[in-house]
Design brief:
The chain contains 13 helices and eleven strands. It has about 325 residues and is of the alpha/beta class. Helix 2 (about 45-50) packs across helix 3. It is flat, with a radius of gyration of 28 Å.
C-alpha cells in the first residue's frame, strides 16, 4: 500500500515561526487522523518553495524536528512522520493543549477579556448554555414572516414579534408596551426604507435579512437548460423573487421562467404544461401538488436566510 503524502499550510505573516507552524500541524494532523505515522512529508526543496524561504532554513527546521522525534529523515527516500510510542503521543497532546490554552488566553486578554469572562463566553459558544434568546421584531409580508420565523426558530433561540407590513402603523407605535423588550427589527432590503422611520422613532436597530444565494443559484443554473415555474402562496411574495431573478442574476437564457401566486389558476395551469421543474412555497405545497401533473419535478425550499446573516445573529445572541 503506497504511503500518503501530506503538505503544510505556511502563513508568512503569522505570529508563529515556520518551525512552530510545521510542528503544530504535524501534531494536530496526527490527532485528527489527517496523517498517520510513517506518512511522507514534503521534501526540503518543496517546502522551501511553498514557504518562500531558503532551503537551508527548512533543512535546519527538519533537523530540529528530527532531534525532537517528530520526523525521520531517510537519505535517498525523503522525510517521514516518526513512529512513536503511545505515551509519547499522550505527552505531545497535553503539551499541544497547554500551548493552545495559553495562546488563547493571551489573545483574549489583549481583547480586554479576563479569564472569568472569557470562560463564560467560551462555554456559551460551545454549549449554548446560558445564551439569552435574541428579541427581534420581524417585519415583512405574511408568507415571508412564516418562512423566516420558522427558519430562525430552527436555527437559533430567537424571541420573535411578527409584524406584517400592513400593520406597521398600529403595531410599531411608540405607545405599544409589547415591543419594549425587543431590541432589533429584522426585515429584508425591499422594506428597509418603509421600516427605518419606525425604527428611528423607537430607537431600535434594524438588521437587514440577507437571502441565501443557494436557492437562486440553483434555479438560475436550471434555467440554462430547463423551463422553471415558481408558485407562492400570495401575490406580495412575488416581487422579491422576481427582482432577484430579473434584476440581480440576469439569467441569459431562452428557457421559460414563470412565477405566480397559487390562486392564479391560469398561470398555475400554464406552469403545469410548460415547466420542467416546479418550485412551490412550503405554505401551498399540498395545493400545488394536487394541481401539477405527476410527471413534473416538484421541489420546495425551507432555508431562505443566508448563513452569514444567521452567523451574525448568533454573534449578537452570544454577547447579549
Amino acid at each position: 500500500m503506497p504511503m500518503s503524502h501530506c503538505s503544510f499550510k505556511i502563513v508568512n505573516d503569522c505570529d508563529l515561526s515556520i518551525y512552530e507552524q510545521i510542528k503544530s500541524q504535524i501534531i494536530s494532523s496526527l490527532y485528527t487522523g489527517k496523517i498517520q505515522e510513517g506518512d511522507q512529508l514534503p521534501s526540503v526543496r518543496e517546502l522551501a518553495v511553498e514557504a518562500g524561504v531558503n532551503h537551508k532554513t527548512i533543512h535546519k527546521i527538519y533537523r530540529r524536528l528530527q532531534a525532537e522525534n517528530y520526523i525521520q529523515l531517510i537519505p535517498g527516500k525523503g522525510v517521514f512522520v516518526k513512529k512513536r510510542a503511545e505515551e509519547d503521543f499522550s505527552h505531545l497532546r497535553r503539551e499541544a493543549l497547554l500551548t493552545l490554552f495559553r495562546q488563547t488566553q493571551e489573545k483574549a486578554s489583549l481583547l480586554g477579556l479576563n479569564a472569568e469572562k472569557f470562560t463564560q463566553l467560551f462555554l456559551r459558544y460551545c454549549t449554548g448554555h446560558d445564551v439569552k434568546p435574541l428579541a427581534c421584531i420581524l417585519v415583512d409580508d405574511e408568507e415571508e414572516i412564516l418562512a423566516f420565523s420558522g427558519e430562525l426558530q430552527r436555527k437559533l433561540k430567537v424571541h420573535l414579534y411578527p409584524v406584517r407590513l400592513d400593520e406597521l402603523a398600529d403595531r410599531l407605535d411608540e405607545g405599544n408596551p409589547e415591543i419594549d423588550a425587543f431590541k432589533y427589527i429584522l426585515t429584508t432590503s425591499w422594506h428597509l426604507e418603509q421600516v427605518q422611520p419606525y425604527a428611528e422613532r423607537l430607537r431600535k436597530s434594524v438588521l437587514e435579512i440577507k437571502p441565501a444565494p443557494r436557492i437562486y443559484q440553483e434555479i438560475v443554473t436550471l434555467l440554462q437548460r430547463r423551463n422553471v415555474g415558481i408558485i407562492v402562496r400570495d401575490m406580495s411574495t412575488i416581487h422579491t423573487s422576481f427582482d432577484v431573478f430579473m434584476n440581480i442574476f440576469y439569467p441569459s437564457t431562452s428557457r421559460k421562467f414563470i412565477i405566480t401566486p397559487v390562486d392564479n389558476e391560469e398561470l398555475v395551469a400554464r406552469i403545469g404544461r410548460e415547466a420542467d421543474v416546479v418550485y412551490s412555497s412550503p405554505f401551498c405545497w399540498n395545493e400545488v401538488r394536487q394541481n401539477i401533473p405527476a410527471d413534473k419535478e416538484l421541489r420546495t425550499f425551507t432555508d431562505l436566510i443566508s448563513d452569514d446573516f444567521i452567523a451574525h445573529l448568533k454573534m449578537l445572541q452570544l454577547f447579549e
